[in-house]
């Protein structure tokens, strides 16, 4: 049976449950400590403190691992959580010195122990920015249209007449959508260059098209 809790009531309930669990652990009553930590995770499943306490008082290593995985999914950057996760890995390795790498995300490694328990392990390093830096999508489009305009000169300038304006529109849109963001200022010179080149290609295309018309007439 569930009861509606407002936020203040939730915090109060969770604090009392966690404090009670800590007292029970000190008194050696791990069953009571586990029951209180279980209650805390049910009231506030988004609070990693509840999962840490439940992992500490869990009656089985399987449940302890599951609780640590849940906490890592919520906040993998927490220092205390990272320490407890590594302690769990050491405990598993003592039982069976085998760890199998499965996969990873930006923040977590997923490994499997010799007991076939899958554990999420926080990464100690930050995710590096891609190098070279990825161009904004609009600038990528602008360069693509620019190349098509250049190749379109071979079609009596018709391709340049069509694609050069599209390159210019993409370059202008980049500055309209991100007019003051610092991360996009480095691309303004490139967008200006696209505008100049697209204008030049359009004029060349127009000249070639006029020459073609003169020869036809």
Describe this structure in words.
- The structure is a single chain.
- This protein is mainly alpha-helical and 217 residues long.
- It has two domains: 7-96, Tetratricopeptide repeat domain (Serine Threonine Protein Phosphatase 5, Tetratricopeptide repeat); 137-209.
- It is built from eight helices and three strands; from the N terminus they run H-H-H-H-H-E-E-E-H-H-H.
- It has a three-stranded antiparallel beta sheet.
- Strand 2 (108-113) and strand 3 form a beta hairpin.
- The chain is elongated and about 100 Å long.
- The termini are far apart.
- The model has no long low-confidence stretch (mean pLDDT 82).
Rough outline: elongated
Order of helices and strands: HHHHHEEEHHH
Distance linking N and C termini: 88 Å
Per DSSP, what share of the residues sits in E-state strands of 2 or more residues?
5-15%
Strand order of the largest sheet: 1-2-3
Task: Please give the CATH class of the largest domain.
Answer: Mainly Alpha
Radius of gyration: 31 Å
**Overall mean pLDDT score?**
82
Quick one: biggest sheet? 3 strands, antiparallel
CATH H-level superfamily of the largest domain: Tetratricopeptide repeat domain
In total, the number of domains comes to: 2
Helix run count: 8
**What class do helices, strands and sheet pairing give?**
mainly alpha
């Amino acid at each position: 049976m569930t009861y509606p809790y407002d936020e203040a009531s939730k915090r109060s309930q969770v604090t009392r449950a966690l404090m009670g669990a800590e007292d029970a652990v000190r008194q050696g009553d791990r069953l009571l400590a586990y029951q209180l930590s279980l209650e805390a995770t049910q009231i506030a499943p988004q609070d990693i403190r509840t999962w840490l306490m439940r992992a500490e008082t869990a009656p089985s290593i399987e449940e302890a691992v599951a609780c640590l995985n849940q906490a890592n999914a919520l906040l993998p950057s927490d220092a205390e959580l990272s320490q407890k996760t590594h302690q769990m890995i050491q405990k598993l390795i003592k039982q069976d010195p085998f760890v199998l790498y499965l996969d990873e995300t930006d923040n977590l490694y997923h490994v499997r122990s010799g007991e076939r328990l899958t554990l999420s392990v926080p990464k100690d390093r930050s995710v590096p920015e891609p190098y070279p830096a990825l161009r904004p999508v609009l600038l990528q489009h602008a360069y693509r249209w620019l190349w098509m305009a250049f190749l379109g000169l071979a079609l009596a300038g018709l391709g340049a007449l069509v694609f050069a304006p599209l390159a210019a529109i993409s370059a202008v849109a980049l500055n309209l959508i991100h007019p003051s963001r610092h991360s996009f200022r480095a691309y303004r010179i490139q967008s200006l260059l696209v505008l100049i080149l697209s204008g030049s290609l359009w004029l060349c295309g127009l000249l070639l098209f006029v020459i073609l018309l003169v020869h036809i007439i």
